[in-house]
Amino acid sequence: MPLDPKPAALRLHRDTLRPQEDTQRQCNPDRMQLKGMQGMNRTTRNAGPQRHVATALAMALACATLSACASAPVAGAAAAPAPARASSPAPSTPVPAVSDSSTAASATIARLQQLIDNHQLTELRTTYNATYGASLLFQSDKLSYYVALFHGKQFWRVIQTDSYENAESIYRSFVAQTRKLAQVDIDTTRLQAGNAYAEHLIALNRQHLQNLQQDASYQQQQARQVATAQQQARQQAVTLSADLHSTSSQLDAMKQRIRELEKQQANPDLTLPAISQEAAPASAASATPAATPSS
After folding, report:
1. What DSSP line would sit under 78-98, residue for residue?
2. pLDDT value, residue 175
3. Taking the C-alpha atoms of 55, 60, 63 and 67 in order, what is their torsion angle to the nearest 10 degrees?
4. Which residues contact 78 (CB under 8 A, 6 or more apart)?
5. Beta pairing, strands 132-139 & 144-151
6. Partners of 71 in the beta sheet?
7. What was the pLDDT predicted at 154?
């Protein structure tokens, strides 16, 4: 025979509600105390004076039980560990708040870069001033214009408009801004080039000065050597001049003697030297031969 599902469902419902009633009974000590007081009042009204002591004891026991029941959830709640709170990790660096205008500008720059990568833009105008530049680009499929201000290879500002006159005005404004911004770079480049050129000239002049100093030192050294040689030559000339004078005197004396001898040899007259009288008889005796006796 088939079973009736209602009793089983009712039992299940009662079994489910019984723990809840017990929990409510434990968690509502005031209601239990009120019920106990009402029961004790009824018992007091029905009982006689002989039961007053038993009633008082029962009330004290009920109050102690209610106090224990009331303190039990509190102790359990105090002993229960607090659930761990999920803490988000602190950022290592502060993240600046992004405004709506910067977000829109970033989106415009990203859209422009995507259009450039997809070759969907036509370049109408571009002006460079040092590392700054401005470009006017045209999107033909949407009749839209993009005016970009860039520094180096990075887009700085991008404005999208559907009006050609507005795009031209923005482009002229960007060009003027690039001219002003680039003036500092231009001056810096010129000054750097001037300093480099001046340093180059200083290096060349330093080398030229060093060469001149070396030439002057060499010339001074040569001049000292020449002066020394000149001094030695002058001393030698003085010595040679004295020797020449002496030699000339000897030569003149010899020439004079030669002329005298040549003149004497050329004289036909016989010139005898003068002889002294004392020496003459001796000479005559020596010159006369000895007389031989005649026979």
Report:
1. HHSPPPPPP-PPPPSSPPPPP
2. 96
3. -160
4. none
5. antiparallel
6. none
7. 92
Judge residue 204's burial from the number of C-beta atoms within 10 Å of its C-beta, 0-12 exposed, 13-18 middle, 19 or more buried. exposed
Residues 192, 193, 199: CA angle, nearest 5 degrees: 90
Contacts 24+ apart (CB under 8 A), 14-22: none
Structural domains in the chain, sorted by start? 15-45+61-67 (no CATH), 103-178 (3.30.720)
pTM equals: 0.41
Instruction: Dump pLDDT digits (tens) for 145-201.
Output: 999 999 988 999 999 999 999 999 999 999 999 999 999 989 999 999 999 999 999
Q: How far apart are CA 9 and CA 258, in angstroms?
A: 184
| Strongest mean pLDDT among 25-39, 85-99, 219-233 | 219-233
Angstrom distances, CA of residue 263 to CA of 189, 253, 259, 270, 272: 105, 15, 6, 13, 16
